[in-house]
Amino acid sequence: MAKKTFFVTGTDTGVGKTMVSATILEAAKAAGRRTLGMKPVASGCEKTPEGLRNEDALILQRVATESLAYDLVNPIALAPAIAPHVAAEQAGRVISADRLVGFCRGLQMRPADLLLIEGAGGWRVPLNERETYSAVPRALGVPVILVVALRLGCINQALLTAEAIRNDGLVLAGWVANHAESAAMSCEQETLDYLMKHIRAPCLGVMPWVKGAEPTTLSGCLGIDVLFEN
Fold this sequence. Notes:
This protein is α/β, with parallel strands linked by helices and 230 residues long. The protein contains nine helices and ten strands. Helices cover 35% and strands 23% of the residues. The strands form three sheets. The protein has a six-stranded parallel beta sheet, sandwiched between helices. Strands 3-6 form a two-stranded parallel ribbon. The radius of gyration is 17 Å and the shape is globular.
């Protein structure tokens, strides 16, 4: 079964969770580790002859060392590019944390050194009227990797998310600062310095903005050894 499982969340939507996840998987592969990646729920999927497909899930499927059918990487694919609980409602479907946990545990049983489970949006994005996505890593009891987009407001978002993760009884295994936009933020270094001092978890690295970049070209930006120390 997967020796290490991490849940990847972000300070918001559009912060680069998939690129960070794919880069971690590439870095692990370069270190000779067997990897799996999944995105249990994906909205904004496109219709293809094979069914609904999500670009982010396809990236995770491609970069993992272990071959998986698409339906295992992204078991719940939704067409509207909106919040998952609204997209599910429009599609006449119901998303529950228990169901997602079941999908995740299925992949945890497969042999690998690393399994990354990419969430959707931020820590408290709704799954339905009663549950948020944070219920999934809580039920799994897995550590969390936080992706912080370097833009105005990120200090508040990052500290609140880190606090929520800890209050939910989970370990923040590490965080990644990501340039999710081409323009550099004002006072970027000061922001990074503050985050380094106040997020009580190791920074795995700072991801640059590179248009059309492949995870293989960015894997050197991250130091993931700390994820395998315990």
